[in-house]
Design goal:
The protein has 285 residues and is mainly beta. It folds into two domains: 31 residues; 245 residues. Helices cover 11% and strands 64% of the residues. The chain is built from three helices and 13 strands; from the N terminus they run ααβαββββββββββββ. Strands 1, 2, 3, 4, 5, 8, 9, 10, 12 and 13 form a ten-stranded antiparallel sheet that branches. The longest helix has 18 residues. The chain is elongated, with a radius of gyration of 35 Å.
């Protein structure tokens, strides 16, 4: 019986301890709340990436002399070429989180660009008295560009943002072209009624033109952004950019008949369309 009394006493002591609020509080493990990342606010950052494009190039006469010349296959045939290069810049924006799952925002960015490329069209005049081969090199370069875009984002988790984006694009595009007589003989042409003309000596650059224009356009794309900490986020983004195109007028550098208007041809690649893929870091204020 003494052992039974000790067992009952021990059970009573344990029951008393378990029913004590202070002891229960000491034994309870409190679960910490999971923090919810808040994307609302301003941010700024840097980015680096790569751009690329496929370009189609065509030529056309602008006056009576070059229209006559085109009848003898003097106008360069169409061709194509590729552009590519590195890019890097800055971005600044604002996000507004809509509850736990969605986000809207506005972002502006500016990038210095090394996207460039060149192509060459070639042909030959009829063999009278000998074949007259020629070449027409062309270069295009995106000097810089920027965008101002709206963003619509979805949050699969509180720290991962996926989004689509689109808006205004602008940039400076430099283009240059020329026409070179690779033949051992020269040729000339004059046209009426506009009195246009040109002369093209053997081995000479006979037509030349350049343009450097700041143009506007549009852009669309998408990406994702991941919170590395309370203030820093990592982003990866694709954008398709389309800037308004300007054709190049390549003018004759010499005329055979004094007083003639220098003839010209147009080199046209249309809109400056290109793709960009880039990564960046943002700091949230």
């Amino acid at each position: 019986m003494p052992n039974m009394r000790k067992l009952i006493a021990a059970g009573f002591a344990v029951s008393t301890m378990m029913l004590s609020p202070a002891s229960a509080a000491d034994l309870m493990v409190k679960a910490k709340p999971v923090p919810i990342y808040d994307w609302t606010g301003f941010y700024a950052g840097v980015n680096v990436g790569y751009g690329w494009a496929d370009r189609d190039l065509g030529f056309s006469p602008n006056d009576d002399a070059t229209r006559l010349w085109s009848a003898f296959d003097g106008i360069p045939p169409p061709t194509s070429f590729n552009t590519s290069g590195a890019l890097g810049g800055l971005q600044f924006g604002y996000n507004r989180q809509l509850g736990a799952g969605w986000l809207v925002g506005l972002e502006a960015d500016f990038a210095w660009s090394g996207i460039k490329g060149s192509g060459i069209s070639s042909g030959a005049l009829p063999p009278v008295p000998i074949p007259g081969p020629y070449s027409a090199p062309f270069d295009e370069r995106i000097d810089w560009f920027g965008t101002v875009r709206a963003r619509l984002g979805y949050l699969p988790t509180s720290t991962l943002l996926t989004y689509v984006t689109g808006g205004l694009a602008y940039g400076q595009v430099t283009r240059s072209g020329s026409y070179i007589n690779n033949s051992t003989v020269g040729f000339t042409a004059n046209g009426l009624p506009d009195n246009s003309g040109f002369t093209c000596a053997s081995g000479a650059t006979c037509f030349s033109g350049v343009s450097r224009d700041v143009t506007a356009g549009w852009t669309v794309g998408g990406g994702f952004e991941y919170a590395l900490g309370e203030r820093i986020t990592l982003k990866a983004e694709y954008l398709y950019v389309s800037l308004a195109g300007t054709k190049i007028t390549e003018r004759a550098l010499a005329v055979f008949v004094p007083g003639d208007t220098p003839a010209s041809i147009s080199a046209n690649v249309g809109r400056a369309n290109f793709n960009t893929a880039r990564v960046g870091l943002n700091y949230r204020f």
